[in-house]
Design brief:
Layout lengths: L22 H17 L9 H10 L3 H11 L4 H13 L3 H41 L1 H7 L5 H19 L4 H16 L5 H18 L4 H19 L3 H10 L10 H13 L4 H19 E3 L6 E3 L8 H21 L12 H13 L4 H21 L8 H11 L5 E5 L4 H7 L5 E4 L14 H6 L3 H12 L4 E5 L9 H12 L4 E4 L10 E5 L4
Parallel strand pairs: 3-4, 3-5
Antiparallel strand pairs: 1-2, 5-7, 6-7
Helix pairs in contact: 1-5, 1-16, 2-4, 2-18, 5-6, 5-7, 5-15, 5-16, 6-16, 7-8, 7-10, 8-10, 9-10, 9-14, 12-13, 13-15, 13-16, 20-21
């Protein structure tokens, strides 16, 4: 999040012909930005679980919203911002996703500023194009989730730390850094790992640095520490969440798996283009950390002992992911690659420097264009598949169901997305609680599911249906529900002959489900 760059006032990478940007870079950047901006507002699919759950929580009055987050496990800032955004622009799919799109657009010029600080005018243009095409930034610009906001907070905090390390006036920058740090912590808890790695690095610079650096590093560290003061009112809820919620939906991952999955998604995902993008991105990142222009502007020298401009940012980013993954393993939590949003700005800047160390204008343009093309193809491919099958299942229910029919979601994680698109006049509940489908209660989630008797719940469903049709939306592959949704279906089918499956679990959906019709009693 807040990566120190010891202090020069001039760019650290100066390619042989940096004074001449060249029409190639401008053309590639213009095309990349145009396509990247368009993709940030294109998401032709219904809201899936996390998005729908975010909207449902944000739709509550602020007091109820904060209470709901105790059972959800997230900090409050994004939900409060979304609450007031929805009050202003509405709660439709396009409207709620537009918040992330606008936030992601705001990050682009700031990324250009970071690129300029580390690699001059060429770096500004390259950073703009790479951030416009970055699959993480594109994907999470189209999701009603907090990750676009996390990336913007990281960028702003980085600029403030860099200003302080360059000796710029601390009067307002230290309190501003405290506010932005606190905002980051109140947006996503993985920011703790990045702030911690940065704080330790700054304290090391204060201890062993020379000249004005120690004092400047202490000022930046004080700004980071001030973020804890901003976060302090949320501490009681945070501790309660840590003790009762978690990530029961997936097992822990080894740090090596975290690194591999993150790199793959940074390159564009698991399609062939994404794999190629990840491979090329790896080369560019290595050039950024270990490369420098060769003598007389010929070739690139790669040295393990390097004075690269982005050596410390790269170290801080890698440390943050490493610490986070180790803590997750130790606490039994999992890792989702979206958590790597905390290091995406660092990756983009390191890649920018990697492109800029190539001294030949033509070679640099070819490398830059290839990276943009591959990652954009991977990012665009994300939109070929539906994120959720909920809308397709809702259309089938709409064709068959009578008013008063009962929809049951098994597991409850299918409820928020399904509830949003189901036809009016249909009653909806979730397994195992038979409660409100708009929310998921993550408190003691695994223990509650393990103690549930599917046959007993099936009897309650039959009683609740009171003879009406039942539509079971279910998926057998959710963790902590092993075998339960199948047993629920079988008990309902035994009680009401003629039960049929109307839709199978789709193979092209990120969030898929089957639809089984349990007919009304004669």
């Amino acid at each position: 999040m807040f990566t120190p760059s010891p202090a020069p006032t001039r760019p650290r990478v100066q390619p042989a012909d940096a004074s001449s940007l060249g029409w190639e870079l401008w053309l590639i950047t213009a095309a990349t930005v145009a396509l990247g901006v368009a993709l940030r507002f294109y998401a032709p699919t219904s809201l899936w679980l996390d998005e729908a759950l975010s909207v449902n929580i944000a739709d509550l009055p602020p007091g109820d919203l904060l209470e709901a987050l105790r059972r959800d496990g997230h900090p409050p800032l994004y939900y409060l911002v979304l609450h007031y955004w929805m009050s202003a622009v509405g709660a439709g799919d396009v409207a709620v996703r537009a918040l992330s799109g606008v936030v992601s657009l705001a990050a682009l010029p700031l990324m250009a500023v970071l690129g300029h600080r580390y690699a001059g005018r060429v770096g500004a243009v390259v950073a703009l194009g790479l951030s416009a095409s970055a699959p993480f930034m594109v994907r999470y610009a189209t999701e009603t989730r907090m990750y676009a906001l996390v990336m913007l907070e990281v960028i702003v905090a980085w600029l403030l730390v860099d200003d302080l390390l360059r000796g710029r006036r601390p009067t307002w920058r230290v309190p501003a850094l405290a506010v932005v740090t606190g905002a980051g912590l109140l947006t996503h808890y993985w920011v703790f790992f990045l702030a911690g790695a940065t704080g330790v690095t700054l304290l090391a610079a204060a201890r062993w640095g020379t000249g004005p650096l120690p004092r400047r590093a202490l000022l930046a560290a004080a700004g980071l520490a001030g973020g804890l003061v901003v976060f302090a009112p949320w501490v009681p809820t945070f501790l309660e969440q840590m003790s009762a919620t978690g990530t029961p939906w997936a097992p822990p991952l080894r740090p090596t798996s975290v690194a591999g999955l993150t790199l793959l998604d940074l390159g564009g995902g698991d399609l062939r283009e994404g794999v190629l993008g990840a491979g090329l991105l790896s080369v560019v990142l290595l050039l950024g950390v270990f490369g420098r222009p060769g003598p007389d502007g010929v070739g690139v020298l790669v040295r393990l002992r390097t004075a690269s401009a982005v050596r410390w940012p790269a170290f801080v980013g890698a440390s943050a992911l490493g610490i986070g993954s180790l803590v997750a393993v130790a606490s039994g939590s999992t890792f989702a690659t979206r958590y790597a949003a905390i290091v995406v700005p660092i990756v983009v800047v390191v890649a920018t420097v990697g492109v800029c160390v190539v001294p030949s204008r033509v070679s640099r343009a070819v490398l830059y264009g290839a990276v943009c093309l591959l990652v954009l193809v991977g990012a665009a491919a994300e939109f070929r598949g539906e994120r959720t099958q909920a809308a397709a299942l809702a259309a089938v229910v709409d064709d068959h169901a009578l008013p008063g029919s009962l929809v049951v979601y098994c597991p409850d994680q299918l409820g928020p997305g399904g509830h949003r698109v189901m036809p009016a006049g249909i009653r909806q509940v979730v397994y195992p609680t038979l409660g409100d489908p708009r929310f998921v209660d993550w408190v003691d989630y695994e223990e509650r599911n393990a103690s549930t008797d599917p046959a007993a719940v099936a009897e309650q469903v039959l009683e609740l249906a009171d003879g009406s049709d039942i539509y079971l939306v279910w998926n057998p592959h959710y963790r902590t529900f092993e075998g339960q949704c199948e047993e629920l279906r079988d008990v309902l089918a035994a009680a009401r002959p003629g039960t049929t499956t109307l839709e199978e679990v789709g193979s092209t959906y990120f969030e898929a489900a089957a639809l089984t019709h349990v007919p009304a009693q004669p």
